[in-house]
Amino acid sequence: MPLDEPVPELRRITDARTMRALSHPVRIAIIEALTIDGPMTATEVGDYIGESPTTCSFHLRQLAKYGFVEEAGGGKGRARPWRMKSIGMSLEADGDPESEIAQQALGQLIRDRSLARYRQWLETRSSYPEEWRDASHDSEYGFYLTAEELKQLGAELSDMLLARYRDRITDPSLRPPGSVPVEMLVFAYPIRPNTPDQGEVD
């Protein structure tokens, strides 16, 4: 893929083997680093995530084997930069029991890392400039929705957010002065199953 070619969006992952290959903290950390800060060598990503260049080089090769990263061109050995082949992923087990288990394990790993960053934000919030403390928000909402409406709500949120800001991830020139990486977590789930008079859960 040429350097000036757009990075494809959202990879759909359905097979258990690929999910299991991703279920390693270092590999997820590498994906996070390359997604947020772009191409890096094994040494650079090691400094970023606190791992040795040797460890990162091994995991980068494994991620390349499964089609998540690729060489960005230039450099030799551990001085070769790597980049993401796509931005974002969707884990979809499609009813396969083995994939369901792998999806749960990988999803838990990813969300545990996200929630750890959220806890860190809460613990260090006072050290941020006032403008960032004022700009951040933490909201909770409750609705009565059908399964189809909940699915549609998620799609609309993703489309709205990604369409507006997604290109800034892959093209630093689009980032306005003063912008920094921001993480937004959106969870939407039923808090109790349907009762008989509400109909059956599909």
Describe this entry's structure for a reader.
The chain is mainly α and 202 residues long. Helix content is 49%, strand content 8%. It contains eight helices and four strands, in the order E-H-H-H-H-E-E-E-H-H-H-H. The strands form two sheets. It has a two-stranded parallel ribbon. Strands 2-3 form a two-stranded antiparallel ribbon. The longest helix has 28 residues. The mean pLDDT is 88.
Give me a quick take on this structure.
By secondary structure, the chain is mainly alpha-helical. It is built from eight helices and four strands, in the order βααααβββαααα.
The structural class is mainly alpha
The sequence of SSEs as H and E is EHHHHEEEHHHH
Which parts are unreliable, with pLDDT below 50 for 5 consecutive residues or more? none
What does the main sheet amount to?
Answer: 2 strands, parallel
The level of helicity is 40-55%
Provide mean pLDDT, rounded.
88
Tell me the radius of gyration.
19 Å
Cα distance spanning the termini: 42 Å
Strand order of the largest sheet: 1-4
Helix count, DSSP H or I runs of 4 or more residues: 8
Could you tell me the number of beta strands?
4
Strand content: 5-15%
Described by the principal axes of the CA atoms, the overall outline is globular
